[in-house]
Amino acid sequence: MKESKHTTWTKAKAVEYYGINRWGRSQFSISKDGHLCVDPLSDGQRIDLFEVVREATAIGLQPPLTIRLQDMLHQRVFQLNQAFEKAIEDERYKGRYRGVFPIKVNQLKEVVEEILDAGKPFQFGLEAGSKPELLIAMAMLDSNEPLLLCNGYKDEEYIRLALMGRRLGRQVILVIEQLSEVDTILRLTKKLNVEPMIGIRLKLNSQGEGKWATSAGDNAKFGLSTMEVVSTCKKLKKAGLTDALQLIHFHIGSQVPNILPIKQAVTEATRFYCEISKLGFPLKYLDVGGGLGIDYDGSKSNFESSMNYSMEVYARDVVFNIKSVCESASIPPPDIVSESGRAIVAPHSILITEVVDRIAKVETSPKPPRRKHRHQSITDLLYILNSKERYGGLERFHDAQQKKEEIQSLFSLGFLDLESRAEAESLYWQICKDIQQSCLNQGYIPEELAELNGLLAEQYVCNFSVFQSLLDHWALKQLFPIMPIHRLDEEPTVATTLVDITCDSDGKISEYIDLEDVRHSLLLHEFKRSAPYYLGIFLVGAYQDILGDLHNLFGRVNEVHVYVDRDEENGFYIEESISGFSTDEVLNFIQYKGTELSRRMKQQIDQATKNNQLRAREGVRLLSEYTELLKAKTYLTPKARPRKRKPAT
Ligand code: PLP
Question: Do residues 459 and 491 lie in contact, with contact meaning Cβ atoms separated by under 8 Å?
Fold first, then answer.
């Protein structure tokens, strides 16, 4: 393969630096052209992601672009079911696995359809957390075998709809999350004359870990306390609905990084299952909720962006713990339900963004200008710059900071002119760069100096919105793997941080995955205006698609759904393409009508033409450009680049 022309950079170094083998589950590799490839079915059929972008661009769908690998959804549903089936077989467990997909994790039609299709052989069901989700789930699940679980806050309409599902013969289970739901369920059951299937969500003592740990414990928003469980059981018995109570459920939060709290929660919930069974309720299902993680940073640790267990270990531990508790209580083991969302959908979606500009944060002039009189503070900074041999990095950094603050005060008080301040700032950044360089080969680097990497990094401006496409990074600092999808045979030499195109200083990615802790900057290739430079943001298929908001009115990005196809030259085909929002679609959401805006613009243009501020021809052109822009996409339009001429033959 063609490796870098100038350095000892190799494809293996790119694999190592970007952690591909750690977060990529052996499904990502680098082609001989230095492009990132993905093997969605783990069968050796690789898809070149740069080629996918090229093909999408050719049909007018430029980045920002979501690539959905539909085969990967299929594979993940299969893997999850297989993991449980294997654990059940190995443990000689007497119950079955009855998984459901919680559609709140990604409600997009094509995603849900693909999951249901892949789940058919396993009777894989759905979980709904709201009325709109239940409306989707009822229509999409057209079989009487899979479970349809109803969670979340419920009003009468929600409960009535779920009960009518029972009349259709569906396995709809109303999971009681609040005590107040019980009476409404009992009343409507009587009124509609249906046999309900009921579940109870427990408020466990065992809590999860990580960013979503507050989903369980005493202060959790959902679930019944032990007293409420007892009172619900009494009410159901009194209403003659003992047989209706079939499921016990808990959810200790999403992305649980540590297997220990999962084991504890499973054990505690199974104890509830056994005790409630002993009260005479013929329970059938134990629902262990979501929480199965994704190893975003590939460190296999209990760090919040990682997980210290695999899908197989998770299934084994769930099955084993339920079995042991049931055995010691002499209660028949339940069918096991899990509501794993993230683990199924996160890997299938990749966001591609194009770097459109660079902002060098700290432009330094290497030689200070000659001056007759220098302020003492600037002379001090020069001294700090040249005293590398004498003082340590941390001491020089603190001295430089002190001087910088002094200089800012002097400037504010009128004792320093603009040029002197510029010179001082330039010296300050030179000192920081110098300290950063001297830290390169050191083992331990104090936190303040480690942060210099992020501070000194160049900002690469990427055509996307963090608020639309990566909301969990903004809200919760969740990490995602990010790397270029091409030029991987070239050494990345520029330390960068990524910023989006929203006009919000929070619209940035300031932390990146690392094996230990986080990186504050990411090495990328030199930005060239003459050719596109694409970055991929990986594992974004869970929650991000749906959480996105309309900040700055950018809205949804272009999207292609890709399938493996061995008969195609590139090994893939784009089955469906969905155009991102146009400006007038987005404006419609906030009650602006394109025609009305154009009419208002025309009035202003006519007036300006009458007042001779604008020539008639200019007015016509302005109005036409305005209406064209209303129809156009919201994100930046990529620059037209000169096409490479074909060599003369
Ligand atoms: N079930 C319930 C009740 C949830 O609240 C959630 C999400 O937090 C899930 C399932 C899905 O969790 P995960 O995506 O971690 O599998």
Answer: no
Instruction: Report the distance separating Cα 481 and Cα 382, nearest Å.
Output: 40
Task: Tell me the residue type at 608.
Answer: A
Compute the distance from residue 297 Cα to the ligand 1 centre, in Å.
Answer: 20
d(CA 470, CA 350): 11
Give the tens place of pLDDT for each residue, 548-570: 888 899 999 999 999 999 888 88
CATH class given for the domain over 93-340: alpha beta
334, 284 Cβ separation under 8 angstroms? yes
Tens-digit pLDDT profile for residues 212-271: 676 666 667 789 999 999 999 999 999 999 999 999 999 999 999 999 999 999 999 999
Stated pTM of the model: 0.91
Alpha carbon nearest to ligand 1 atom 9, residue: 290
CA of 133 to the centre of ligand 1 (A): 14
Cα separation, 224 vs 302, whole angstroms: 29
Q: Whose CA is nearest to atom 13 of ligand 1?
A: 290
488, 491, 497, 498 alpha-carbon torsion, rounded to 10°: -30
Q: Which atom of ligand 1 is nearest to the CA of 151?
A: 3
How many C-beta atoms surround the C-beta of residue 1 within 10 A? 10
Locate the ligand 1 atom nearest the alpha carbon of residue 212 and give its number: 8
Q: Using most ligand atoms within 8 A of CB, pick from 76, 80, 105 the residue to mutate for ligand 1.
A: 105
Calculate the CA 629 to chain-centre distance. Answer: 30
- SS3 of 101, please? strand
Instruction: For residue 543, give the ligand 1 atom closest to its CA.
Output: 14
Q: Is 478 in the pocket of ligand 1 (CB under 6 A)?
A: no
**Span 39-56, mean pLDDT?**
96
For 108-122, the pLDDT digits (tens) are: 999 999 999 999 999
One-letter amino acid of 385 = L
Q: In this structure, which long-range contacts are made by residues 372-377, counting pairs with CB atoms below 8 Å and at least 24 apart in sequence? A: 374/420, 375/407, 375/410, 375/415, 375/416, 375/420, 375/424, 377/403, 377/406, 377/407, 377/410, 377/424
How big is the CA angle at 64 (ends 63 and 68), to the nearest 5 degrees?
Answer: 90
Q: Whose CA is nearest to atom 10 of ligand 1?
A: 290
Cα 253 to ligand 1 centroid, rounded to whole Å: 6
Dist. CA 380–CA 131, nearest whole Å = 67
Helix (H, G, I), strand (E, B) or coil at 215: helix
Residue 390's SS3 state is: coil
> What torsion do the CA atoms of 85, 90, 95, 101 make, to the nearest 10 degrees?
-30
Q: From the CB of 81, is ligand 1 less than 6 Å away?
A: no
Domain 1-66+355-580: which CATH class? mainly beta
**What are residue 176's phi and psi, to 5 degrees?**
-75, 120
- Closest C-alpha to 508, from 446, 465, 451, 450: 465
558 lines ligand 1 (CB under 6 A): no
Cross-strand partners of 224:
202
Question: Cα 349 from chain centroid?
Answer: 9
